[in-house]
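Re: [ENG-882] Designed sequences occasionally contain unexpected residues at chain ends

Forwarding the minimal case from QA. Structure tokens:
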């Protein structure tokens, strides 16, 4: 695989930083470390066509990896509980300001069989009760009841494939 140009890493780092700060999030203040993660996102984009988390093993099947496309489904729970996401790309303000150190974050992604079972149960429990399906943005949690998910999430700008049937 070809080396990723520094300018491409810098440009994506700047974009992610702007988007994070604009959305109330913060990138890890260790710029060298963070740019290493950005390099991993770009590497995975080249491999798979999407930004699979650079700290997790992607399957290469986008539908199976939707929960670990950055920003992953586990970012907010990890930030709330540990102050950083699993790969430490995103951190809380205290860590950004240097008032506290990032700590290890345990993997909360369940095995594939368990993820599939959870989805099937949730859909089965609620599908019969609604006249329209409810779609949930896996990135920010936005919910909408309509026949199909929006092309772009109005809150976080995630693409349609980041939505899942919620109910």
């Amino acid at each position: 695989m070809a080396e990723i140009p520094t300018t491409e890493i810098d440009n994506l780092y700047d974009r992610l930083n702007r988007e994070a700060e604009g959305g109330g999030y913060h990138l890890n203040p260790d710029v060298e470390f963070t740019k290493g993660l950005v390099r991993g996102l770009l590497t995975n984009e080249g491999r798979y066509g999407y930004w699979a988390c650079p700290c997790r093993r992607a399957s290469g099947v986008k539908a199976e990896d939707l929960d670990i496309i950055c920003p992953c489904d586990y970012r907010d729970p990890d930030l709330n509980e540990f102050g950083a996401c699993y790969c430490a790309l995103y951190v809380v303000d205290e860590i950004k300001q240097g008032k506290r150190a990032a700590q290890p974050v345990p993997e909360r992604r369940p095995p594939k069989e368990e993820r599939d079972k959870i989805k099937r149960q949730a859909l089965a429990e609620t599908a019969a009760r609604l006249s329209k399906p409810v779609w949930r943005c896996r990135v920010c949690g936005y919910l909408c009841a309509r026949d199909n998910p929006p092309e772009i999430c109005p809150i976080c700008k995630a693409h349609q494939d980041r939505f899942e049937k919620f109910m």
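QA comment: On inspection the terminal residues look reasonable. The mean pLDDT is 92. Proposing we downgrade this to a documentation issue.
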